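Tutorial handout. Part one gives the primary structure; part two gives the three-dimensional structure as tokens.
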Amino acid sequence: MFKKRVIGKTNLQVSELGFGAATFGNLYRPMSNEAAKASINKALELGLNQFDTAPYYGFGLSERRVGDALRTHDKASYILSTKVGRILAPCAKAQDKYGFCSPMPFEPKYDYSYDGVMRSFEHSLQRLGLSKIDILYMHDIGKVTHGDNHQRLFKIAMEGGYKAMDELRTQGLVSAIGLGVNEYEVCEQAMDYGYFDCFLLAGRYTLLEQKALATFLPRCLKEQSSVVLGGPYNSGILATGVRQKNIVPHYNYQPAPAQIIKTVAQIEDICQEFQVSLAAAALQFPLAHPAVVSVIPGLSSAKRVESTVADMQSEIPQAFWQCLQSAGLLCTEVPIPAAPALAETCVKKLVANAIY
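Part two.
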């Protein structure tokens, strides 16, 4: 069983390891309904209680599968999150796009308005076939995603979408709200407009990236907003490493650049020296920071659930983390899993010294 940590100022307690269900939308490859259900059953059996999905994942397919799998379980045994910010519009036929090999005949359209968020929430309840969503995230808002359209869409999101999400929270229809994004900067921007219980941040606080330490994570501590760390493998390179033949290592959804490959190779050398799994180190590292309540990798099978649980529970000596720091692969001030009690002090020193 996993320890549980509290989301923000709520009563929600989530397991330190969560379940990302983007794979349930047939991300990159098809999977069966039976495999999806078996993986969730195995996750619950092994103590995971946090499940994350979104309308975008397979254009409704992931939500349908997650709902079908969870419906037979006691509601008290799981915490469910999904997302708003896109409406699924019917289209003539299903198409493989955005990496999803989905049979669902829908096209995702961005809509961060008040009405769009309310519609998306209601549609998700129907697709899930469940009576309650615990955490509602606003999906993929940000400058990296929207480029020149960011300021226009962000204004709509904060003046309309946030208002709808806050109303749903006030009415008790959801227990927590947040952003589900790939860029921490937009989280800080959103914090100027209202209170978010949590942020599902993908890939921006990992063995390869710690810039969020400078301002974002300390602000989360100050405002009591929790961070759920998605994408702990940085699109796969921190799971596969860079030494396997016939595998192109990916970072940020693209083939990894030479400098990233070099850095991961150095981390792998130290992993080999200490007989530590690279994937285990990637999963355990973020949890040393007091603002981070859980990590959510994508899980695609019962076997993958079992191996990920084993990685989370494997023992990693403090000397391993110190070796990464000595080699310049981790900031010397970064909170490390073997000494989490020092985390807040480390963050304060990091900001004071303006390392980033």
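Part three, for discussion. The mean pLDDT is 94. The CA atoms of residues 140 and 181 lie 5 Å apart.
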